Amino acid sequence: MEGVRRLLEAHVVRAYAPYSGFPVVALVEAEGEVFLGVNVENASFPLSQCAERNAVAAMVLAGKRRIDRVHVYSPKGPIPPCGGCRQVLMEFGTPQTPVLLHGPEGYVEKTLGELLPLAFRL
Q1: Is the pLDDT of residue 115 over 80?
Q2: Does residue 22 sit within a domain?
Q3: Which residues are annotated as a binding site for Zn(2+)?
Q4: Which H or E run includes 25?
Q5: CA geometry: angle at 110 spanning 18 and 50, to 5°?
Q6: Is 115 exposed, middle or buried (0-12, 13-18, 19+ CB in 10 A)?
Q7: Within a domain: residue 85?
Q8: What CATH number does residue 82 fall under?
Q9: 121 lies in a domain?
Q10: DSSP for 61-109?
Q11: What keywords are assigned to this protein (predicted)?
Q12: What is the pLDDT at residue 2?
């Protein structure tokens, strides 16, 4: 876990969050590989991209389709993914998929099902 934490802390500085001042980095473990994403804000706020969705996009680009675990880090503290990101994560995960919410003082572990109990599924 310490290696994952160092990776998250090293990459959060690449987030582009000039408007909110709230940098986030996400790491998705999928089928034996890891994929990173950072949040990228835009002056037109609805066009901003969350770190979690960017990590999932990198995973899909690599041809992976199953999320095994998710890590989210912000220096602002352990924060959960937004509602939209929870739904995107559920598309490739299961209600049992672990989601670790990291902050400077440690992490909290939840499942995707705990974060999104009434997920839309086809």
Answers
A1: yes
A2: yes
A3: 50, 82, 85
A4: strand 25-30
A5: 25
A6: buried
A7: yes
A8: 3.40.140.10
A9: no
A10: HTT-----EEEEE-TT---PPPHHHHHHHHHHS-TT-EEEEEETTEEEE
A11: Hydrolase, Metal-binding, Zinc
A12: 84
How many residues are listed for the chain in this entry?
122
Is residue 13 domain-resident?
A: yes
Reported pTM: 0.95
**The two three-digit tokens of residue 36, written as one number:** 């990173």
39 falls in which pLDDT band (50, 70, 90)?
very high
Angle CA 106–35–2, to nearest 5:
30
- pLDDT, one tens digit per residue, over 79-114 is 999 999 999 999 999 999 999 999 999 999 999 999
Q: Given the structure tokens 């220096």, which residue do they identify?
A: 75
Cα–Cα nearest to 12, from 55, 51, 67: 51
Question: Which residues are catalytically annotated?
Answer: 52
